[in-house]
């Protein structure tokens, strides 16, 4: 590749990325051109490129990670993190990157917010013990403990302590994940409960916010029920075997859980077995 040409294009991309306001579409276009130029040969990816080339590619991929978060494109973020790990593994050959820990922390938080606990622990095992004390790594680890303990108030407090602007979006996603968990627990525990109490438990501002959330939850469940699992009913932490719908309705100052006939006939022992198998499946991934 033409290193001078690539550096010039990277400088243009970086200037666009740091501009206020930032034209994200323009940044994405420049990034595409830059990656095409950088990856046109296999030398960099195979580790045989010059140190200057590898550093330029590493910095490009780091900016690509942050751009993906700003665009809320998590699949692209995960692809860029996967590519970056190759360069982070070559730390003995390259000077340390200041962005390594913020990006690895974002990756852990993304897995946690996606309820991919098995993958979260697998990634954590790959981080050396001394590096796990880094603030960017410690925070998602602490948040994972709060989620596993059901200490959702602490998760909510964690929004105030996010160490970098890019964490805010993933914290929103984590709060949404927590709401799904709390909602599932409420469905199993109540036929109905006071709307104001339910709003507080679901980390919502007020009853109108609860009404809006109930509509979205019903729509989400309807989409989930209509999804075709292609014959695969293997349960997991994030997908249980179809057992009918529980519709949410805010009425007369209370949140009601209206169960379908199929849901009423659900056998608790079967429900327990499904969840146990799901936990065992995810535990296998960790081990």
TrEMBL record:
<dbReference type="InterPro" id="IPR006746">
    <property type="entry name" value="26S_Psome_Rpn12"/>
</dbReference>
<dbReference type="InterPro" id="IPR033464">
    <property type="entry name" value="CSN8_PSD8_EIF3K"/>
</dbReference>
<dbReference type="Pfam" id="PF10075">
    <property type="entry name" value="CSN8_PSD8_EIF3K"/>
</dbReference>
<comment type="similarity">
    <text>Belongs to the proteasome subunit S14 family.</text>
</comment>
<dbReference type="GO" id="GO:0000502">
    <property type="term" value="C:proteasome complex"/>
</dbReference>
<keyword id="KW-0647">Proteasome</keyword>
<dbReference type="InterPro" id="IPR000717">
    <property type="entry name" value="PCI_dom"/>
</dbReference>
<protein>
    <submittedName>
        <fullName>26S proteasome non-ATPase regulatory subunit 8 (26S proteasome regulatory subunit RPN12)</fullName>
    </submittedName>
</protein>
<feature type="domain" description="PCI">
    <location>
        <begin position="72"/>
        <end position="273"/>
    </location>
</feature>
């Amino acid at each position: 590749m033409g290193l001078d040409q690539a550096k010039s294009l990277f400088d243009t991309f970086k200037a666009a990325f740091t501009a206020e306001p930032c034209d994200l579409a323009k940044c994405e276009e420049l990034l595409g051109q830059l990656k095409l130029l950088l990856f046109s040969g296999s030398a960099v990816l195979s580790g045989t490129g010059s140190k200057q080339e590898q550093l330029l590619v590493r910095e490009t991929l780091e900016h690509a990670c942050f751009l993906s978060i700003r665009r809320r494109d998590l699949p692209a973020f995960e692809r860029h993190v996967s590519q970056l790990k190759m360069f982070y593994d070559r730390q003995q050959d390259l000077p340390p990157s200041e962005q390594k820990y913020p990006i690895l922390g974002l990756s852990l938080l993304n897995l946690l917010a996606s309820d991919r606990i098995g993958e979260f622990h697998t990634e954590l095992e790959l981080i050396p013990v001394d590096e796990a004390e880094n603030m960017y790594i410690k925070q998602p680890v602490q948040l994972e403990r709060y989620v596993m303990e059901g200490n959702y108030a602490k998760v909510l407090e964690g929004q105030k302590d996010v160490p970098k602007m890019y964490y805010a979006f993933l914290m929103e996603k984590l709060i949404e994940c927590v709401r799904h968990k709390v909602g599932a627990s409420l469905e199993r525990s109540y036929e109905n409960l006071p709307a104001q109490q339910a709003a507080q438990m679901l980390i919502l501002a007020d009853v109108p916010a609860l009404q809006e959330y109930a509509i979205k939850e019903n729509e989400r469940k309807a989409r989930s029920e209509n999804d075709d699992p292609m014959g695969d009913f293997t349960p997991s932490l994030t997908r249980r075997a179809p057992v009918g719908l529980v519709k949410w309705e805010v009425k007369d100052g209370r949140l009601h859980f209206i169960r379908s006939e199929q849901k009423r006939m659900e056998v608790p022992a079967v429900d327990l077995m499904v969840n146990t198998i799901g936990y065992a499946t995810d535990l296998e991934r960790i081990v």
